[in-house]
Design brief:
Blueprint: E1 5-15, H1 19-30, E2 35-38, E3 55-56, H2 68-78, H3 85-93, H4 95-105, E4 130-131, H5 137-151, E5 155-157, E6 160-168, E7 171-179, E8 184-195, H6 216-224, E9 228-229, E10 234-243, E11 259-261, H7 269-272, H8 282-297, E12 304-307, H9 313-318, H10 320-328, E13 338-347, E14 350-352, E15 364-366, E16 371-372, H11 383-404, H12 413-427, H13 436-450, E17 454-455, H14 457-477, H15 489-513, E18 522-523, H16 531-534, E19 536-543, E20 546-553
Parallel strand pairs: 1-2, 1-8, 2-5, 8-15, 14-16, 17-18
Antiparallel strand pairs: 3-4, 6-7, 7-8, 9-14, 9-19, 10-13, 11-12, 12-13, 19-20
Helix pairs in contact: 1-5, 1-11, 2-3, 6-15, 13-14, 13-15, 14-15
Length: 558
Amino acid sequence: MQLAIEFLKTDVLVVGSGCAGLMAAIEAAKTGCMVMLIDKGLIGKSGCSVGAQNIAAVIKDEIPGDSVELHYQDTIKAGKGLNDPVLVKIMVEDAEESIRQLEAMGMLFERREDGRYKLLDMNGHSYPRALLQSDRTGKIMLDVLRAEAERLGVIMKSDILLTSIFQEQGQVQGAMTVDFARGCLVLILARAIVIATGGAGQLYPLTTNCDQSTGDGMALSLKAGCILKDLEFYQFYPGTIIAPQALRGYCLGMIQFGRLYNNKGERFMTKYDPVSMEKGTRDFISLCIFREIIAGYGTQNNGVYLDISALPADILNAFDEECKILHSCGIDINSNWLEISPGAHYFMGGIKIDENGRTSLNGLFAAGEVSGGFHGANRLGNNSLLECLVFGRRAGRAAGLYAVETDYFPPGRDSISGEIARLRTILNKGKRKYQPGHILEALHQVMWVYVGIIRNTGGLEKAREILTELKANLETNTGISRKDLLFNRELYYYLQVENMILLAEAMVISALARKESRGAHVMEDYPMSNDEQWLVNTEVTFINGRLSLRLAPCNKLN
């Protein structure tokens, strides 16, 4: 079977069109480079940035007593000491400048009558510092960034899936992609590549993430030679709707202003934290909800109840879009309790980067949720968009400057033909016992049961065994009924599940290595944190087809 292949050439290739990807493309374009931005979904609509409600930043003189240093301390405290302090310091110090740049592009944040920003007080922050535009901040931000990228001449292509990153002797050469909209392979030669593909919420059966969050960027960067760090830490968002089905996976920002009840009508947070109640950190609230469910106090849909009735008008106005969505599904928040459960929300781990988004592979950069180091063992709320904005800028600028000074290194014929042969082999499988969706369902089950909110050594070992079986079943017993590329959804899901299994394996060996409980990593057989031994980062590499793990000392400020 012949596969049509197209050859394209650009200075900087950006993969992913969320906040980090669009900002990286903008900054790379400002260096005078030709920039191409691709996404396996729709440009500016794919990814999780579109659903983000707020962005944390300390704006000078807005809140008396607040400071960049306090924002830094809050972030390190939430991360239980495992954050990379160099990255955190840059993120909080560059916050105001990044916000001002965004406003110069046309972004409008809500302000009070006195002209000051309207700032929300969010969990874990010492002072109110969440900027917003109603609760559509991420959507409006993406619209602004896309318009700016278009103005700067960034080439944008939707429905293109990255399948491999070509490199030789530690130097990026380009990437192979599948253009599902046109039914062909596209080999993209690039001097530099920025990976901004987001997280991997689709590893779990309940997630706030979009369908595109399958960890492709992490898995393919790992295969190319990059280091992934802190993969044992996955944040579950406590306020994820599980019923009705139309709203399953919807992320409720109002949870911290509501009241949580179990099936006996008890406001159960009184026994876990009678002081903070529902205003605790996300990892702790998720853990408390999960404990109620496994103790038999959950709802019929394996959740708990959230009461958000009688909230003040200013809170309801801040979550206006959320209220409209609930109302459109027939939910009256003043008379209906919502059924919620913790859903996979954010990957604290990711590709190891430096202060300019550089990875361990020359010419490969990363920004946004796909990268690791900022959040340690638990992400402080509303720091995600900030991370994307600040390090999208830095990675894009660094990639552009790198491309200006670097020649093309075209991949060798053997590398190209090898990837084409791999894809052709998958397409030639024909119908078999399983479809990719069957493997994904099994993956969901093993991740939720054994690699979820509460873990133990025996369960993680079991997960490793099952993942090995799933990988074998994908390779030998899972088929693709069509042989063409045009909108071939089976191939689309096959390639994603392949990446997800590798990433899940890396998560499991990272979780097994950390013999303590810290932040979002809760081990039943190691219930306490151990600062003497475990103030270290886990680092995973993929060498000669095998995963390898090492423990690395945490980075320190100079």
